[in-house]
Amino acid sequence: MHFFVLQILLVAPLCSAMRVAVTGTTGLLGRQITLTLSKKNIKVNALLRHPIDNSVTPSIDKDATSSQVALYLSILPGVTMVAGDATELASCKQLVDNCDAIIAAHGPVKPPPIQSLFRLLPESDPKHSRSVNYVAVQNLIDAVKESTTCKRIVRVTGKGEEPTSFFTVLINMLGNMAKAWNYEGEQLLRSSDVDYTIIRPGVMGRNDIPTNKVRALADDGQDLKVTAVTHSQIAELCCDCLDYPNAAKSTLTAMNVDEGLGEDSYAPLLAKVKADSRDFPSTLLEEHKKGARNGAAILAAFLAVFASLSVAVLKTLSGFISGIFH
């Protein structure tokens, strides 16, 4: 009990003195991370790609625009907006200035399906998943290595070690290979000498899920049954893991379990986390691309059959109608 009280007394001043950089600031997860850090009296450098618009109504509601979210976050205590883009190294260097850690919650914008299916967007484009999930991660690593203060990267990714699974293939097909480049970005962190914590969350978006003793973690990138999790839960995990040195160089799968079988907070789970010890595949890029190609071929065959059947049905109906009126 005395140790627990002492730990609180020691951590509280550290929290108030800490400064954390955040990418993906106005996203559904990024806004919760920024809000959580501010509530914990942790100073924030929040990366923002567009200027603050003071003419909008500040809001962090789910349907709020990026401009509304940015204005809301900019007036929170301890939050400093930093103009830039994670796909630019100079922006990343400026972002981590005087920071102790960075929470990378950025991700690519969902592209038009046709654009992704036919690979119309070059991989070099700043909006492409390679730029966002891979190049930007390398930029953050380089910025942290050059920094004299920032020594920790927390990166939110997702499950991506099963290139042929249905949802992985679908996301790769329709998201400019987002899953593939997410995994390659993870490997950049594992092969660097930077202290990282990779978080692979469940499906974020729903808020109507049980919250009483449901939190579960698996370290070493081990598998857990995919479940719904809330953005606020994962924001809590991103911020909490900064207090646990043992969570450095670890890959955490974060899901929910049946109510009563998990934990109310991540603290007891994080206390047991160990650094990655297994050999992760060095790359899965070609397997991901092959899975997406096969998926696209199956989709094309399905559409061809569907089109053929549609034409046959239309011809039959046309003949039937012609017979009625003649």
Write the layout of secondary structure elements.
Layout: H1 2-17, E1 19-23, H2 28-39, E2 43-48, H3 66-74, E3 79-83, H4 89-95, E4 101-104, H5 113-117, H6 129-146, E5 152-156, H7 166-174, H8 178-191, E6 195-201, E7 203-204, E8 215-218, E9 228-229, H9 231-240, E10 250-256, H10 267-270, H11 285-325
Parallel strand pairs: 1-2, 1-4, 2-3, 4-5, 5-6, 6-10, 7-9
Antiparallel strand pairs: 8-10
Helix pairs in contact: 2-9, 4-6, 6-8, 7-11
Describe the 3D structure.
The chain is of the alpha/beta class and 326 residues long. Helix content is 44%, strand content 14%. It has helices spanning 2-17, 28-39, 66-74, 89-95, 113-117, 129-146, 166-174, 178-191, 231-240, 267-270, 285-325; strands spanning 19-23, 43-48, 79-83, 101-104, 152-156, 195-201, 203-204, 215-218, 228-229, 250-256. The strands form two sheets. It has an eight-stranded mixed sheet with strand order 3-2-1-4-5-6-10-8, sandwiched between helices. Strands 7-9 form a two-stranded parallel ribbon. Helix 3 links the parallel strand 2 (43-48) and strand 3 (79-83). Helix 2 (28-39) packs across helix 9 and helix 4 crosses helix 6 (129-146). The longest helix has 41 residues, at 285-325. The chain is globular and about 75 Å long.
Key attributes of the depicted protein:
single chain, 326 residues
Structure summary:
By secondary structure, the protein is an alpha/beta fold.
